[in-house]
Specification:
Elements (H helix, E strand, L loop, with lengths): L3 E5 L4 H12 L4 E5 L2 H14 L4 E5 L5 H7 L3 E6 L4 H15 L2 E4 L4 H8 L2 H7 L2 E3 L4 H16 L5 E7 L5 H11 L3 E5 L2 E5 L5 E5 L4 E6 L5 H8 L4 E6 L3 H8 L3 H8 L3 H8 L8 H6 L1 E9 L5 E9 L1 H17 L6 E2 L2 H5 L2 H4 L5 E5 L17
Parallel strand pairs: 1-2, 1-4, 2-3, 4-5, 5-6, 6-15, 7-12
Antiparallel strand pairs: 7-13, 8-9, 10-11, 11-12, 13-14, 14-16
Length: about 375
């Protein structure tokens, strides 16, 4: 019987961070990736601190038979290799063929929808496929689920996020998402929307901050599956330099839309590194703010405060992987909250849930109001 965990992408920042935290917690696993040098260097470094905790394994994504062979002893695969639109299809196909549960860190609507389309195939294969084992989607999913319980009859949901320091892959994905139209959900219908076309003022715990419309996120896809929301909008705090570019009528905005100097902007946002330092991660805090509304005007608002987003992502993915290793998953497409339940909030160190007592000064716009659009 297969019983091992494989983390794919330890030759990238988030995968390496997840692997280090797994090793430190005593969870032995396979550390895999596409680049031999990166995978070997990571495994060797961990073997000096936690002997035997990480077994290196290298394979690309172009040969289905080789991927399947690499999963021969693997019960759960966590895909941390970006971009998911390129890495997910081959790995999901191999997981379906080998009976291996599949998790990844995707949070964009297109990636979530692609996994949702594998629901029937995964159920037939007896495996779980789940996106969003990350700060971006797992916490939004947990927030939506809790607000639905706290406010029966809620049909409208607004989610806003504050990440903190960006990894290189996050900066790259954010830049790409801001350049193309996305979608929101209004009264059950999908509505096209441009990124950052609206903003809301949100208190994440340190005073009011501005968050921009983030229609690329998968919250709408997720919440429509779970209900009861028929109107859903997602917002995100952008780095100040990036917000000035996308909101301003300037040469910089024109260059951004045309795709000029995007690599330089990516390096600037990530501070020319693959990710934050350990010291920066230890200091940083991230947050998710949510507001649910009923048609009668009742409102419930809450905030989730967490360690730095990459730390939460690593711990959430490992929590979900352990649950699947323990047989707690169900075949088919599943959301993070359907696997991890309350553990996504209660069992991860440093996560604080706050119900906001006075929702009368609602910061979220009413999407049915033409002025908000």
């Amino acid at each position: 019987m297969k019983s091992r965990l494989l983390i794919y992408g330890v030759d990238e920042f988030e995968g390496a961070l997840m692997s280090r935290r797994a090793a430190a917690s005593g969870l032995a696993h396979i550390g895999a990736g596409r680049e031999i040098a990166g995978v070997a260097a990571h495994a060797n470094a961990q073997s000096k601190i936690h002997p035997g905790a990480v077994e290196p394994r290298t394979f690309g994504l172009g040969n289905p038979a080789r991927i399947a062979a690499a999963l021969d002893d693997v019960a759960v695969l966590v895909n941390a290799s970006t971009p998911f639109v390129r890495t997910s299809p081959a790995l999901v196909e191999a997981c379906l063929a080998t009976g291996t549960h599949y998790l990844d860190l995707s949070s964009e609507g297109r990636d979530v929808a692609a996994l949702m389309a594998q629901d029937a195939a995964a159920a037939s294969a007896g495996i779980t496929v789940a996106p969003g084992a990350c700060f971006d989607l797992a916490l939004a999913d947990a927030m939506a689920a809790r607000l639905a319980l706290l406010l029966p009859g809620a049909t409208a949901l607004t989610i806003a996020m504050k990440h903190g320091p960006l990894t290189r892959s996050e900066a790259r994905a954010l830049i790409a998402a801001l350049r193309v139209p996305g979608e929101t959900v209004r009264t059950g219908n999908t509505v096209a929307a441009m990124p950052a076309s609206r903003t809301v003022d949100v208190d994440f715990g340190a005073g009011i901050e501005q968050a921009a419309l983030a229609p690329w996120r998968g919250d709408g896809v997720v919440s429509r599956r779970r209900g009861p929301y028929t109107t859903i909008e997602s917002y995100e705090v952008l780095p100040p330099a990036l917000l000035r570019i996308v909101k301003g009528a300037s040469l910089a905005r024109y260059m951004f839309r045309r795709g000029w100097r995007l690599k330089a902007l990516e390096r600037r946002l990530a501070r020319r590194r693959e990710g934050p330092t350990d010291a920066e991660l230890a200091r940083a805090r991230s947050a998710v703010w949510g507001e649910a509304r009923t048609p009668e005007g009742r409102t419930k608002r809450a905030r989730l405060e967490t360690p730095a987003a990459p730390l939460y992502t690593a711990d959430a993915a490992l929590l979900l992987a352990r649950a699947l290793l323990d047989g707690k998953g169900a075949p088919g497409f599943r959301l993070p909250s359907e696997i991890g339940g309350g553990g996504l909030v209660q069992d991860i160190a440093g996560v604080v849930w706050r119900e906001l007592a006075d929702p009368s000064d609602t910061h979220a716009p009413d999407p049915s109001d033409a002025r908000a659009v």
